[in-house]
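Structure, all two chains, one model.
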Amino acid sequence: MKNNSGVLSFQDVSLQYSPTGPFALRNVSFDVGAGERVALVGPSGSGKTTVLSAANGLVVPTSGEVVVNGVVTADLNQRKHRSTRATIGSVPQGNALVGPLRVAHNVASGRLGQWGPLEVLRTLVRPRDTDEILAVLNQVGIGDKLWERADNLSGGQQQRVAIARTLFQKANLILADEPVSALDPARSEAVLELLVDVVSSEPDRALVTSMHDAPLALKHCTRIIGLRLGVLAFDLPADEVDESQLDSLYELDD
Amino acid sequence: MTTATGSTRVGAAPRPPARWNRRVWWLVSLVLVGWSAQRAGLDLTKIFNARGASQVGDFFKAMFQPDLSFGFVKLAAREAMVTLGFAILGTALSVAIGMVGGLLLTERVWLSVSGQATGVHWVWRSLRFLFAIPRAIHEVVFGLILVNILGLDPLVAILAIGIPFGAVTAKVFAELLDEAPRDAERALRASGSGRLSALVFGAVPYALGDILSYGFYRFECAIRSAAVLGLVGAGGLGFQLALSFQTLRYNEMWTLLWALILLSGLADRWSSVVRRRRSLATGEMHAQLSTSAPQRDPVLRTSALLFLAAIPLAWWRLEVDISSLWSSRTQTLAFLLADDAWPPELGDEGWSGLFGDTVDTLALAVLSLVMAWSLASLLAFIASRIENPWSSSGNIARSMVGMVTRFFLLIARSVPPPVWAFLTVFILKPGLWPGVLALAIYNLGVLGRLQSEVVENLDNEPGEALAAAGASEFGVAAFATVPAVSGRFVSLGLYRWEVAIRETVTVGVVGAAGLGRTIAGQVARFDYDGILASILALIAVTLMVDVISTSIRKLIR
């Protein structure tokens, strides 16, 4: 039950979305330790997003175990599940901020998992820890947007707010699902560099991100996990991955 | 606190800037509501009338004992077909008017190729004003007047629905067309095509899907209008309802009301299935082109074909004879009526009478809408069809409660406002309140549906991100759902305010209050110059509210 070595561990995980449906994941195992930056690469439908959802406990494996910070997520009840999730920060593809709220509220929403209803309502009126929120916003380079409406921000700035939210949340496992797929190349670089900075700023943090752009993954991550049709194809340090492995991952079947 | 990587300025955060616009508008709204309540009277002993409660109880007891004798059910079915026919032909007319009017009302058709205003820009402005006038007049007013010209002819209901709905449709179509990309049209214009043909070839294809699906929203509204028009004598379910309610036969009334609820429920369902596939999912609130929706949508296409096929059927079933529009009798009556009506004349009480009625109308609309909107904003979450997809506690109880709420909202909007007014006068003393309550119940039904559609069409991603970080269902609701819907709720409410002004007429005709009551009295006395004066006042107050609500909606966006 306890596994102290890693931040995230998949142990022989298989997953079907419906009992008779195809396997979205088949016998996937890997461990992610503190300080690692892992990129999940593979073609569409290879199971990258499913791995991230399973790590977050949003979908439950059909067999096998997902362990987050030493806790097996499948056995948890609703309340314990929330407290585990509170240690997981997520940076989605984009469009994950609450548009009509200000940036400050969006950052503050990272701690919703730790608050009771009264504190939630209080924060909706006016966040309490504005100095801390400003500090994390400065860290991601947009301190001047503190009181801006979130939907007035550009795509790159919105991703920065999402990252600031995980910082404010003090999450130690950051899951990012195609965090830069909606951005142009220059902004993709900048946002990924920021993610790398954020993850390496604390020794206990780890990043797991899905990316369809293999060169970007190789450049910014320490470890690459290749997925194809829900099966783990390879799991190597970034500097040991070569062209042919990536090519075989993406080749068409027919 | 996290240690920073680069250079981090640690300092005190500035205070949030105040949003004065918003505060001022909230204050203005509060004053307006307070003033309206003052106008209607707040002395509870003068509002409630406990003695009428047993009548209302009898009415609702009959709900479960409708008259199911074979003869009456047959009659109800026949009359339901008539109401349906009115709605189909009225919608068809309004879409036809909307298609032509929509092309003329687009701004771009009056602009030069490069998008500059040309010398004829004033034509566009006057056309827009011209179309705003029928929009300001409720179907019932058209119905009351047309009955006096055409007699008991199905054309009364068809025209009374088609003309005002056509004007609204034209406005929405024009907005949709103006949002379509301009490049294609510009290229056609540049190669010598005429203005209208460039618009038809270059812009209509982008907007056609949305235009058609909007037509289905109009159909849903037309069913309810057709029922109300029946109550003022046009025929169909509404007419039978009026007959049964004059003799207080509640069981018969409920047979007819159940038929109406069924009809209305089916039309609503059809319309939302068609519209859900488009961005027009929230009805008429904002015309915004759906760019992602497929242009060839099989559901939309089949529905449109079905509707087209229904037009000749309805025509034949209602035995519509279009020649009565220009028969000599119609011409004479129309001429006499116009001659009588001009110049408009004030009633016995002069300007102050007209002014008082107008102010009553405004207060009636404000109060009924605030009541309906507040309750609808809560019920919308319960009535919405979607479970919180990120919660695992979706259960049968929740969906049962949702179903019951939706059914309650369906009844609230299917029963015509005059029938609600007939009930509220039992328990409330005469004055504004019976009308307020009747319209509030009706608008609750309409707004509850539109607002729950807003909830259903909500983008889930922000909420999912919060749930993924451990937020509770309450946290997700407070931080993601409510902020995301509140802006749209407010604009729906403001939009509905314009509509509510017009709708005051529907409770006025049964004697509630405001300009509607005055107009109904004047129709009964054939006082046509008085009617014209009242209608002009109604148009003025509707246009005023239109301007205010549009500018607030722009400000808060």
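Residues 185-200 of chain A form the longest helix (16 residues).
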